Amino acid sequence: MISLASLIKWKARAALWAMYGGVALGLALMGFGLGYHRARVSSLQEMNALNEQRLIAENVADGKLRQKEVDHAKEVAELRVQLAKESARERAADIATIARLRDGSERLRFEVSSCRSAPGVPGDPASGGADGAGRAELAPETAAALFRIVADGDDAIRKFGKLQEWARTAVKRCSPEGAQP
Q1: Which of the chain's termini has less CB crowding within 10 Å, N or C?
Q2: Considering the domain boundaries, does residue 124 fall inside one?
Q3: pTM score, whole prediction
């Protein structure tokens, strides 16, 4: 039979081995958990680094877009100033021409295929050709009114040209890098 002292020794050793095993198992589990958490922290750090890089790239892109907007606004302002200067210069020339047409110092003449006096108006047909063709002259106010219409059309053409220039700059600014508008 087994003596009580040897049984106690055996149980003490078993308990000691169980305690050693429990400590070893606990340490192994702690090591596994620590490794898992380190891997997770590392993964989160990588994700944060990628997010930071993405944010930096977006900020750089935003800065480039803002600079493009500022540059485009400057170009549009330059086009407006240029249009205002050209319009003022042309308007002054048109006003001077209209004044000369009104006072008769400048006349608006054009060719006519037949030059006869209106019914009830005395006078000979204008000379100019065997078939009665010649030149006619508009009354000063009529010439000025006609020239004003032409000047308004020229002004609209200038404005349309500047609008086209603006559209070209907008397309160029809004196109991706290297794309042809």
Answers
A1: N
A2: yes
A3: 0.50
